[in-house]
Amino acid sequence: MSKVVKFGGSSVANSEQFKKVKQIILADPDRKYVVTSACGKSGQEDHKVTDLLYLCAAHITYDVSYESIFQSIVDKYMEIKRSLGLKIDLAGEFAKIRQNMAQNLNLDYLVSRGEYLTGLCLAEYLDADFRDASQVIRFHYDGSIDLDKSQELLKAQVDPGRRVVIPGFYGSLPNGVIKVMSRGGSDITGSIVANAFDVDVYENWTDVSGFYVADPRIIKDPVQIPRVTYSELRQMSYMGANVLHDDAVFPVRQKNIPINVRNTNHPENPGTMIMNDCSELDAQEPPHVITGITGKQDFTVITMVKSHVSAEAGFLRKVLAVFEKFQISIESVPVTVDTFSIVVQTKKIERYLYEIVAELQQDLHLDDIQVESQQAMLAVVGRVMRQMPGMSGKILSTLGDQQINIRTINQACDEQSIVIGVNNQDLVPAIKAIYQQFISEERVER
Ligand SMILES: Nc1ncnc2c1ncn2[C@@H]1O[C@H](COP(=O)(O)OP(=O)(O)O)[C@@H](O)[C@H]1O
Ligand SMILES: N[C@@H](CC(=O)OP(=O)(O)O)C(=O)O
C-alpha cells in the first residue's frame, strides 16, 4: 500500500507544525510521497509566505522597497531552521532569490519559492529525498497540466525505495520556465503525484477535520461530512469551500483514488473521504439530505430585456459571442420570457464591463440592459436531494421566512445542487438560515 500526503500551508506554518507533520508521516510507512505547500499563517496577525511573495512582486513593479516584507519571509524560515536544527544553507538560497529578483523578475518563479524552500526544509527534517517540482511537474504552453509527461518525469526521477518530498503549486513549461498553478494549487500537485504512482489513497492534511457542511468561519462547530462524491466536492469547492482546490479531483478521478481530508492538529479524526461512489456506505449510514452549503460573493449580473427574446433563435449565441470575444467565462444564464441574464465573476469582467455593455446594446437591439454588481451565489449541494421532491421549495421558503430576496435560481437536471443568487450582504444570513433549517433541526430529530 502507498499514500500521497499533502500538507497545506497551515500544516507547515512554523517549526511546531513541522513536528506534527513528522509524527504523522512516521506513524505510517505507507506515507511515502509528501507534497508540501508554502508556510501558511501561524496566527491571525501572520501572513502566508505566498501572499508575502506576491506582495514583494507588486513592490518591485511599482519600484517600492520590498525589504521589510522579504525580511519577514527570511525570519520565518530561519525560525524553522533554528528550531529544528537543520543544516540547509538558507542564506545561500535567499541570496539566489534576491539575485533573480534584481535581474529579470519572473513572477511565477518568485511566488513559487515558498513551496521550494518549505520542501527543502521538510525533506531534510524527514531525511527524505527532495525533487524540485520544476523537474517533475510539466505544463503545456497553454497553462494546462501535461499529466502524461508529469507521470513520466515523476516515475523516472523518484526512487521508489525512498520517501520523497515534492513542493506543490508549481512546475515548468516545456522550455523549463517555472509556472505556478492557480491559488491553492498544491492540492492539484498532490493529485498528480497520486495519479503517477497509482497510490491507494491521497491524504490531504489541513487545519480542519475534513469538509464541514458549512464554512466553520460562518457556522460555529458545523457538522463534519464523513464522505462526499468527487462531483459534490467539485461543486462545493468551486462555490467557496476552499479546503480543496476544485481541479484536484481530475487526476485522482481518472484512477479512482479516494481523497481523505485530514486535520494535522487532530490526526486521530478520520476526516472526510472523497470518492467516486458513496452508495454502498450510504446504504449502511444514510447521509444528511444536504451535503454542503457554500457560497461566493462578488458576481455581476447583466440583464438584457427584449420582448419575445426567448423565442428568438440565435439570440443566446450572439450574447455569448460578445463574452467570448473578451475571453470571459460565464457562471450561469437565467432566462425568462423577455429577459436574459448573464452571471459572471466581477473580477473577471470589471476591466471590460462598459465595452461589453455597449457592444451588447449595439449588436442586439435591446429594449433595456441592467448591470448589478455585489451579487452572491449560494450553492446547496447534496447527492440525495434528487430523491426528495419539494427540496427547492423548502430552501426557497426558508430564505423567504428570513426576508432574504432571491435574485436568480439555477438547478441542473442532475438535481445535485441548487444555486441561488442573493445580494452580497444576504449570503451569510442565507447560509445560516439553511443550516439551521436543514442541519441543526435534522440533527435534533436524529
Ligand atoms: N465547508 C468547509 N469545510 C471545512 N473548511 C472550510 C469549508 N469552507 C471553507 N473552509 C475553510 O478552508 C480552510 C482550509 O483550507 P486552506 O486554508 O486552503 O488550508 P491549507 O492551508 O491547509 O491548504 C479551513 O480553515 C476553513 O476555514
Ligand atoms: N501556497 C499556495 C499554494 C497552496 O496550495 O497553498 P495552501 O495549501 O496553503 O492553500 C497558495 O497560497 O495559493
**Integer average pLDDT:** 93
Round the Cα radius of gyration to an integer and report it. Answer: 24 Å
Low-pLDDT stretches: none
Structural class: alpha/beta
Q: Ions, cofactors, ligands: which are bound?
A: adenosine-5'-diphosphate, aspartyl phosphate
Strand order of the largest sheet: 3-4-2-1-7-9-10-8
The CATH class name of the largest domain reads Alpha Beta
Fold topology:
Blueprint (H helix, E strand, L loop, with lengths): L2 E5 L7 H12 L4 E6 L12 H13 L5 H18 L5 H13 L4 H20 L2 E2 L2 H4 L10 H11 L6 E4 L2 E3 L5 E3 L5 H11 L4 E6 L20 E3 H9 L10 H6 L4 E5 L8 E4 L3 H6 L7 E14 L9 H11 L13 E7 H4 L3 H12 L3 E14 L9 H11 L6 E4 L5 E7 L3 H19 L1
Parallel strand pairs: 1-2, 1-7, 2-4, 3-4, 7-9, 8-10
Antiparallel strand pairs: 5-6, 9-10, 11-12, 11-13, 13-15, 14-15
The protein binds adenosine-5'-diphosphate and aspartyl phosphate (PHD).
Commentary on this structure:
The protein has 446 residues and is an alpha/beta fold. The chain folds into 2 domains: 281 residues, Carbamate kinase; 154 residues, 2-Layer Sandwich (VC0802-like), CATH 3.30.2130.10. It is 40% helix and 20% strand. It contains 16 helices and 15 strands. Strands 3-4-2-1-7-9-10-8 form an 8-stranded mixed sheet, with helices on both faces. A hairpin with an 8-residue loop joins strand 9 and strand 10. Helix 3 runs parallel beside helix 5 and helix 7 packs across helix 8. The longest helix has 20 residues. The chain is globular. Aspartyl phosphate binds next to helix 8. The site of adenosine-5'-diphosphate has 20 residues, from loops. GO terms for molecular function: aspartate kinase activity; ATP binding. Its EC number is 2.7.2.4. InterPro entries: AceGlu_kinase-like_sf, ACT-like_dom_sf, ACT_Aspartokinase, ACT_dom, AKIII_YclM_N, Asp/Glu/Uridylate_kinase, Asp_kin_monofn, Asp_kinase. This is Aspartokinase.
